[in-house]
Amino acid sequence: MPTQNTARVPGRIQRKPTVAARVGSLLRTAGPAISTLAVTSAALAMVFGMVAVAIRGDLFSAGSGGKAVMATAIAALGSGAAALSILAVVNTTARIIVWPLCALLALGTAITAWIAIGAATDDADVSSSFDSNGATIYAVTGAVCGIVALISVLAIPARTLPGRSWTSALIAGLVVLVAVPTSVVVAHGYAHPWKSNTVAPQAVPPYPDQLGSVDYRLRLPAFDLDHNFVTAGTGFVVADGTVVRAFDGITGQPRWSFDFADIGRTHADRRPALTVTQDGVVEAVASGVRVGLDSVTGEIRRRSPSSDTQSRTGNCGTGTTRTVVAECSDGVLRLTNRADGHDTTLPQPLPAGEVLRVTALDDDHLAFLIAPTGTSDVTDVIVTDGALTRVDEFRAPGELPYAAPGPTGTLALTSNSLGDRRIVIRSFRSHHTQIHTLSRTVYPELITTVGDLFVVVPDYDELTTIDPATGTMETATTPPCSPDRYGNPELIMRVVPAPGAVLVLCRRRDDALEVVGLRE
């Protein structure tokens, strides 16, 4: 048989694709999806960064924590913008997605600015539901989205991607619409449970004319009544830890809270010291920062550095009227004219002796209590008007170094000595004096005025009213404070009149405080 020759047909050598080729093929196949991820992440980074800067931006200027959050928010904005810019340059098809989205972001920024300007003009707080905790959530989320966007952009092949641009745009838009409201809910959940509330201006009710009956009880952690409790508007404000809380004085319901941790003061060395300014702003001082808060909404009105020293009066008192500030320290009196800040003097010198106390009786009258030289167990009392001219002077029996302003034209004098049960009531208009002896010791910090009555609390456990016009004394039959586990009433530490209610502050045996609201 003839031999058959088999010719070899030259063929191609089949080689397995390299890893780089596989990755490149995968990227080209997944290009539209990666493009969508890049655009979506970049958009979210810019939105979250912008919102983080917008909400409570006034908090960022204090504290290293606030500055770190601001830097993170700016990084989120920058990374999102950089990713969109790179994508628009290297990918011609992606421009169909990028530029409309950039226009929407610009429009959103303009709307945000317009709302912020309108809110500032209308004295409202458009970010009242958030604090710096919410801003931190936005900033960190935006930064993560920015990183994802940059990585996604770098993974997209440089060549033009096939179609699907409108699909990518639609997906990106849907993700943004879903993610932003979800982040609002999450940020609000991480924010402090009570935040400032933008409310309509409230009509201020009149001060009560009588004590009334118990309307509500509110238990709070112990605080310093002299520095951590103030009444403001129709409510009261307390300081607990680093948090300042406001309550409605008529209902006892919480209004707002402000946490010094929101401005980077997480380790306050003492509770914030509270005062109320003449324009009704609650000023809180802690850890070197003085913050002025709106008494109704809790919105930050002003902020400034502070030496953090709590204000103290002289050891014999300070009295301020419309025209003069009287300061007494170690028996030495200093008078300052409020109009020019210069020192001034009394037209008629005070009697010789040690100044025991100076007290403002109202906006136009000062009382000076003096222990006369060479005479024991009596007190000279001088009352002056706004021009520092004497309108009344008398000598009270006994050393009574404390004066409390009373109903119009009256004052009450008392001692701080254990067992001293006297209270001297003087009308500096009619020049009439009453001397009352109660069943127990009367302390000066427990004398206040409700309507036309003096209210005193002998030995911290009962309410007694004195009518300066008739001299009638009445004692409440039911103590306002809750009884302890043995049935004994808690101690009454202070009685504070407020618009629409009388607040009784009770000290419980466990050191907690109970605020009792009395209403007519």
Describe this structure in words.
- It is a single chain.
- This protein is an alpha+beta fold.
- Helix content is 27%, strand content 31%.
- It has helices at residues 19-29, 31-54, 64-90, 95-121, 132-155, 165-190, and strands at 213-220, 229-232, 235-240, 243-248, 254-259, 273-276, 281-286, 289-294, 300-305, 318-320, 324-329, 332-337, 343-344, 353-362, 365-372, 378-384, 390-397, 402-405, 410-414, 422-427, 432-437, 447-450, 453-456, 464-466, 473-475, 491-498, 501-507, 513-519.
- The strands form 7 sheets. The protein has a 4-stranded antiparallel sheet, with no helix packed on it. Strands 2-3-4-5 form a 4-stranded antiparallel sheet, with no helix packed on it. Strands 6-7-8-9 form a 4-stranded antiparallel sheet, with no helix packed on it.
- A hairpin with a 5-residue loop joins β8 and β9.
- α3 runs antiparallel to α4 and α3 (64-90) runs parallel beside α5 (132-155).
- Mean pLDDT is 76; it is low at 58-62, 113-130 and 160-164.
Q: Which tags fit this structure?
A:
520 residues, alpha+beta, 6 helices
Helix content: 25-40%
Q: Average pLDDT, to the nearest integer? A: 76
How would you write the strand order of the largest sheet?
1-28-27-26
The shape, in one word, is elongated
Distance between the termini: 132 Å
Q: Which class best fits the helix and strand makeup?
A: alpha+beta
Radius of gyration: 36 Å
Query: How many β-strand runs?
Result: 28
Percent of sequence in beta strands = 25-35%
Number of helices: 6
